[in-house]
Amino acid sequence: MSVLSDSMREKIAAYLPRYPQKQAVTLPALHVIQDELRCVPQAALAEVAEMLELHPSQVHDTLSFYGFFRHESTPLGTHRLWVCRSISCMLRGGEELLAELSEKLGIKPGETTADGRVTLEFAECLGKCEGAPCVLWDDECHGNQSVESVLQLIAAENGATHD
Amino acid sequence: MTDSPLALLARVNRPDSQSLASYLADGGYSGFQRALGMSPGDVTDLVKRSGLRGRGGAGFPCGLKWSFLPKDHPGPVYMCVNADESEPGTFNNRILMEHDPHQLLEGIMIGCRGTRATTAYVYLRYEYGRSFRTLERAIAECYAQGLLGRNVQGSDFSLDIHVHRGAAAYICGEETGLIESLEGKRAWPRIKPPFPAVEGAFRKPTVVNNVETLCCVKHIFDRGVEWFQSIGVPPDPNNPRDAGSYGPKLYQVSGHVNNPGCWELPLGVTARQLIEDYAGGVWKGRQAKAVVPGGLSTGFMTREELDTPLDFNGPGRVGCLGLGTAAMVVIDDATSMVDVLYNSCRFYAHESCGQCTPCREGTSWMTKILHRIRTGQGTLRDLDLLAEVAGSIGIMPGTTICGLADGAAWPVKNAIQKFRHEFEEYVAQKRTSADPLRELVGAH
User: Fold this and answer.
1) Model's pTM, two decimal places?
2) Among A150, B199, B220, B223, whose Cα sits 20 to 30 Å from the Cα of A56?
3) Are residues B128 and B223 in the same domain?
């Protein structure tokens, strides 16, 4: 039984012509998998390795370096919420924002709400320092945030505006 | 758009600034047309003559970098665009990509004409989702218009541009870490030499250029070398090694100011001008205690050093690491430098890739020592220990492969030297700092 669906395999294979070496498709493949499955299951490593003609340990080596990809025991929730804690945000209340959101959501950074909707993480500089404190909500960064505005994003569910 | 006093930001915030149609209507891709009519050697020469220095942090002359590529190599040659903008306080590349993607693409095309690169990879930090979508649309427009692909406009020039998304690791902004990551490996920087120009991506000659640098290239081809050199600071006649600080620069200001933002200004404005004339002054009627001149790695300037010109030489003259990314972070006089330095050390400890022991252990121990100080357990000896560790990690003392450790060490060196009295007082009074995250994510 394959962990990778046909459509995921197609998406991964579409990256192959872009690079002279198949190993370069490692990160794109891991993104395809995590976007779809909210984690990278152990069994997927072997399947990616086979597609890219690598040893599974090579895929694991890259995956484990980034701290970005989730183990199947702790998948991402439906939405990802990253709160910046680096210098520009820290100076304008970023750490307090993260701590208060943690309390409101009842989870620590790294954890997912019991209903599986939101995974909270701390982030290092998100590159929106003119709008400190800022958060990354799914694939969109929002500046000048407060606990109230972030809770509104969560309540709206569709906070990620894919323009 | 050549009549605008602005170049890099001229189209930002204009309606429809992202589309190819509006870019062409503004005279876009005329610089590329000019480059297409020139030989690669002449393209590189023009960039060399302009004096353009890299905007990513190191300030290396761009044309010189291109000229390091072997002349007789059978190819392929690769261009890597460093869009992994992650230096704390830095956000100008994001603005350029989100608002004017074709400006960057034109710069890439000219760069690839000059370097004979046939494939360009834009290594984009994962967090820039909006930049990703904007660039993907702009690249598709270029293929549809025949500006990318094989034999562009019937010429001998062929180019593919691909966006490659990272996975939230600061080290991928180091050019050889970027290459390793692109190749699908852990982003461990490589020992140099060989430099990427000789052996880079996929072991082929490779040029790595920053987003803002390539955007400057576009304008040099639009407006000419004389225009570029009419802006900024010429080389110091008394220093034969000084390459000068020519051209416009995107200055970013964040932290404790009334009006944080990004401004295109001639290289060489002062920190005080940025705070007072552009960023609306220090917030809450306070004074600046310190400023980071160019991204966290560059260290701290004191209130007395605010008149330092922020060109490629200025910050170094007051003991900072350099101009960096020209991302200024303003720290007000109600803020503890102990807390600021802890935040800095925690960042580098988190982002050290772990390859070199002095960096992996040094950044971690500096964070632990500051944690100790912040919980009232510090001693005066800890201040010397911090300075000792900071002095022993990095390329400069010769103990690490890449400059991450130098960037981690510099804020420590500057803070302990320039604000020693504040640290001594903090330790002597056994002060402590609130840490909202301590129970949540541990000490670091």
Assistant:
1) 0.96
2) B199
3) yes
